[in-house]
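Limitations
The structure tokens in this dataset are predictions for the assembled complex, not deposited experimental models. Users should treat interface geometry with appropriate caution, especially where small molecules or nucleic acid strands are included. An illustrative entry is reproduced here so readers can see what is and is not provided.
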Amino acid sequence: MNARSHAIFPRVNRAGWIDTLRVMTRVIVPTVAKGTIIRRQTMERLAERQSLHIRAVKEMQRLKDKYGPSPLLLPIPFRPQLLILDPADLATVLRSSPEPFAAATAEKHAALAHFEPENVLISSTARRAELRPAHEHALATADRLHPYSIHFKRIVDTEFLQLISGIGSNRPNELDWLSFSQAWLRVVRRVVLGERARNDVTLTETLNELRERANWPFTARVDRRKLALFHQQLAGYLGEPDKHSLVGRLPTSDQIAWEDQVAQWLFAFDAAGIAVMRTLALLASHASYWAPAVEEAMGGRLDRPFTRSCLLEALRLWPATPAILRHVTTEIRSADRIVPSGAGVVIFAPFFHRNPALLYANRMEPSIWGENDALPDAGLVPFSAGPVICPAHNLVPTIASLAVGTVLSESGLALIDPVLPVDNLPGTLDHFAIRLRLSARRREK
Ligand code: HEM
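Predicted assembly:
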């Protein structure tokens, strides 16, 4: 064995050309088409109507039945991809990052170059070692509750109470994505950048325009002028950071321009907002889970284990990051096959999260999480796992459960749209289409 090769998988199978084509058209294309960096509303609707994710999961199951559970090499010219089919291999890959499974893949480079070209996700292993600790400190990765949680609760309360009281709304008793997302973005700007950023809608718009381009990796040209403008807009907040903001926890450094790291925070909070909206839709449809979540919200504690588990269920059922990607840094040898250095690795989360062997595959079952937010041995990894795990895997559930709690403590909720069959939840839940009816709890009493 070559000194730089790794024997990680006892066996690797190779897919035929037709099966490779089927994975491309039934799994990869629908996932990419929904928008990997910013969701496309029309594609999200189509994915829900056509059950594209359920079809993708079935396709993966067919491959597993045909070839067996070992990783499956798709012989795509110039860019072979290793498809992971077994939870044990998923856990191995995530544990063995960034070497020999680097997070910095060509696909991520092509997309993130548009709005955060120096981000930790696409950095070399050496650069990652410098950047990752700064993320972990600012986001308090290891702490279940971020040290600024009380402050964050105040922000969430003011923004969502204002939303619920119907200020500025045409339909005060209804919560839809448009009104929810505006309040959520105010929360995000205040949490990440501080009070001064509350109404900086221009900053969000600039970032979103860059993200639209990032949805076309390998094809769209990087808009350098807009990227510079975005950096300029961010620089104002980074230069004089607000004391209780996340950027206020970044170290001062001449070597690192934090704009590219903070862009990821602003971008990724979108996924958390979507998950909050879906959690509310789930709770409105499950009376038995509704009551304990309301009780937690009324209790007023910052740590809300049950609500966190409900959020994790929303992320299991509808993963925010459907494909966790890796890049093989040194060739991998199995019994009779070599996976070349440079090959991609694909962990298609819905395949594991909706595994029909799990009794709860298509139902909501908060109890599965216990105290955890990753169960890699079962293949359940909404925030990934291992050394590259999302550094906000504690922060997101905290802020999200506070937001859910503010809504629940103030209002009764009924799901107007869509209808959610609780015994067989759909493969996609189009968050743009969720509509909830609010009834003022205080006035009811
Ligand atoms: C529901 C919300 C979120 C989900 C489901 C999520 C999930 C993920 C996943 C799956 C990864 C990739 C990990 C890997 O490749 O193994 C990731 C990376 C990352 N996330 Fe999140 N994330 C969310 C929100 C956030 C937020 C709000 C922030 C910051 C405030 C954040 C910061 C990051 C960073 C910096 C990385 C790169 C980590 C690295 O490369 O070391 N995420 N996230």
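Some entries come with short summary sentences. For this one: The chain has one domain: 13-444.
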